[in-house]
Specification:
elongated
């Protein structure tokens, strides 16, 4: 196994653990705590999970590459970590759906319609919304549509973090390895008297 693949598996796995915990917390608490089901919370957790991309590329740069990495090798590793996390997120979501007998979409539609009724929408508007949501339910029942939809929830976050991480970490002065800092502090500067 190459060092790059090893780092991708380790840090992609760590990101996957955070995403699995997010799915578990959401499943357990979404009825009790409203903020758990918000988009802001969801994407914040995804960003935290995908921060392992930065950590993994930095560790690879410092340990395997002597503190220096170019943009494209860094981007390649970052995208590999993001891909592993995205695949894991999709598979974990599928396991959650199977464990709950695929009732997620039914619960989601019931929630949307209940909010529409509570906000005072007319019966005609609610009937129109219900028809649209039934179409979405039919699409979501098809795994060839559901799997890419699920992956596309987290993949853009992974892509953005990958590009930013590769761009930042190509600069060896950004968070240099401790050995590099120590070596720089031990070497005499040209202005020091001998």
């Amino acid at each position: 196994m190459t060092p790059m693949l090893r780092y991708a598996l380790i840090y992609g796995g760590l990101a996957s653990i955070v995403l699995a915990a997010f799915i578990a917390v959401t499943a357990l608490l979404h009825h009790q705590v409203q903020w758990v089901a918000t988009l802001t919370f969801g994407y914040s957790v995804m960003l935290v999970a995908m921060s392992f991309i930065f950590v993994g590329v930095k560790r690879y740069r410092d340990v395997e590459r002597g503190g220096v990495i170019r943009f494209f090798p860094a981007l390649g590793l970052a995208l590999l970590i993001a891909l592993i996390a995205t695949i894991a997120y999709t598979l974990i979501w599928e396991m959650y759906l199977a464990a709950t007998h695929y009732r997620f979409m039914d619960d989601y539609i019931a929630s949307v319609l209940a909010k529409a009724r509570a906000s005072g929408k007319s019966a005609a508007e609610i009937a129109r919304m219900s028809a649209e949501l039934d179409g979405i339910r039919a699409m979501y029942a098809n795994p060839l549509i559901r799997l890419p939809m699920t992956a596309m929830e987290v993949a853009p976050v992974g892509l953005a973090v990958s590009i930013v991480s590769a761009a930042l970490l190509r600069n060896p002065r950004l968070l240099p390895a401790r050995e590099n800092i120590r070596a720089a502090s031990l070497s005499p500067s040209p202005t020091d008297p001998a």
